[in-house]
Amino acid sequence: MDDQMEEYRKRQREQYQKRQQDGTEQTEAPADEKGNSGQVSAAAAADLVEASVQDAGAASSSAGASAGTGASPPSGSLKLVTWNVDGLDEGQIQLRHTALADWIKTHKPDIVYLQEVVYPTLRILRKHLTSTYDIIIPTNPRPDPSDMESLTRGIPCAYFCAVLLNKQSIQACGAPDSKWYPQSCMMRHLLSIRARPTAASAKDAELLLGTSHLESTAEYKNERVNQLSIVATNMEGWLSDPDTPSVCTVIVGGDLNLRDPEVKAAGVPSHIRDVWELLGKPDSCRYTWDMAANDNLVMQGGGKPRCRFDRLFIGQRPQGSASPPSGRYRWVPQSIEMVGTDRLSSCGRFISDHFGLLVKLELAVPTEGGEGGGSKGQKAKAKAKKGK
Amino acid sequence: MDDQMEEYRKRQREQYQKRQQDGTEQTEAPADEKGNSGQVSAAAAADLVEASVQDAGAASSSAGASAGTGASPPSGSLKLVTWNVDGLDEGQIQLRHTALADWIKTHKPDIVYLQEVVYPTLRILRKHLTSTYDIIIPTNPRPDPSDMESLTRGIPCAYFCAVLLNKQSIQACGAPDSKWYPQSCMMRHLLSIRARPTAASAKDAELLLGTSHLESTAEYKNERVNQLSIVATNMEGWLSDPDTPSVCTVIVGGDLNLRDPEVKAAGVPSHIRDVWELLGKPDSCRYTWDMAANDNLVMQGGGKPRCRFDRLFIGQRPQGSASPPSGRYRWVPQSIEMVGTDRLSSCGRFISDHFGLLVKLELAVPTEGGEGGGSKGQKAKAKAKKGK
DNA sequence: CCGAATGAG
DNA sequence: CCTCATTCG
Ligand SMILES: [Mg+2]
Ligand SMILES: [Mg+2]
């Protein structure tokens, strides 16, 4: 049972060593090198024979559920979940990831951030979700063998992040972006995509969505802090990018492997907030990786560590006087809960060694003369204080 | 043989635990609480029965050897050695430290920085060197049991730093200062003393001398970086202290346990220089702690690590137009060599697991119209470049 | 008093 | 994919 630790380490090591050697050999890359915007289509997925075979029935999204039509006042809600789904644990992988797909079909989140996706689990997700979700994975930069820097990171990535967008409620705008942390020895990356809700009442309130799996283990604290700084810098850039004035809110999160002091160390600016903190730090979803509550992974020796590894950061476009129209919108967190906390009856294990975090957001228009709609959670107050 | 490692760890742990408990009990403190300026006199050393019993014959110092008399042009040379003498290793301690005292009597350095002095070895040094050297050890602040912060550092210190000043060539000015790093879990401290050469030709070129043993082991990198920052801040303060305008040069060093990246991390200002680097980074004295060259300590498992743990930093008082007269002097490193590299014939071991660093300095007066004397080493050039 | 790896809580 | 302590090269 606890050769999983060994397995984990082994895989990390294998990948690390691999990049030293065969930086040029493309095996099964998470890429698209076909210019299809990094969004996986059935056509691009040559390795995917079962794609679209068994799509879930069309799920009605909750986003825009409260939306009016046409020029009605802006309104809308979104559900976002982030989850490290532990594709590196091969035990009951089929059962666990079928259950994950079922969970997604049942709860119909609008946005799904996944970490530790591997090809076998990607196939499962595609099989069940292709008709209802766009599945976005990182591009895999083609390594240039004469470029050492490229060689150190351009190799096929054995596990990676993914963003799923509910086709009914939200759609990708433009190509996703994959930034590979240059100093990572675990091929960690930041996967991001701009997205627009489909509901007419919310379609002008675009989001910049990003997910990442920051460098793991205490040993790589320094690199993880660097990576978080990169994340924060990207978030700041997106929040002030004049090319995408319609983006009002940036949400980046995932398995960040963070210990609290590291957030300060990274210098995350104060206007970028931790969603769990914004929502009052509920104890019920503090420890997203908790060996006392989840025995998918068992420490040798019987220790029961737990950590708040999975986090979401949110930033709102500044509302300067000269801000674009989207500057008046903001997606505001309303609630947060932990998911995946039940054992699967089929195998007695959990979907992952991490729990997921499910966050509900509502669209708010905090201009004078009344709330634009939906922003009546505890978050509304925090936002009002924060707004200039 | 390699229960030394165990011993080391054990002692460190004991001390750490001790401070949690008996913060108030004074055992054998390195102190003077008698207001004698921290400089150990035979009278203050109640535990020292053999003091002055067997003094070495008066050694003629090299400092001022080249000095003229009276109002002749400033000139002078000084020899400074820094050495972690591993008093925590009790093996052959008497032989090893008698050999250390012999080395000092033979080479007659003007300034000696020692680390890991313990009471038994202090007695040996006193026995052989009291008549020829002033032996300065840290004050031991009396802990106030109601003051938690004091409790964490005010306990008797089992091993400590010392500064020895050759009575013939240099004399302490005022009281020494002991700064205890507040976050140290090893009771580490910075021991400093202002000193004036006795030679008439150099008596206006005072030095601020400091030695320290920074937090050991890779594990305590962060605390060590903090401590180095404190050292650098103190050096800057001394270099600009209007109360001691006669101090022209500050030299602080010892067993700093540094790995190269930590120096940057500590933000040591660029005008504070590493003496070994100033002198061209000679390979012959790079590794002051070298298991390949010194088997006083043997790693279990047979590893042969080596590090440049022992370092000296030097800073010169800025020569602003309004600078005091001493601003025109500077003690300039001329050469550096490693000492203690021979096995003792008596026991086949080395004096310490660390080698010592012996540095020769000469007094320079780099004003326009010719060198003031002595500054013709390779260092003179570096100084000339550095001088404003 | 190294750094990487291992083992136990 | 925890922390500490220990082992091993
Ligand atoms: Mg994992
Ligand atoms: Mg030592």
Explain this structure.
Two copies of one chain form a homodimer. Chain A has a single domain, classed as 4-Layer Sandwich (Deoxyribonuclease I, Chain A), CATH 3.60.10. The first copy, chain A, contains eight helices and 14 strands. In chain A, β1, α2 and β2 form a beta-alpha-beta unit. In chain A, α5 crosses α6. Chain A is globular and about 55 Å long. The C terminus of chain A is likely disordered. The site of one magnesium ion has 4 residues of chain B, from loops. One magnesium ion binds next to loops of chain A. The first copy, chain A, binds a DNA duplex (9 and 9 nucleotides) through α1 and β11.
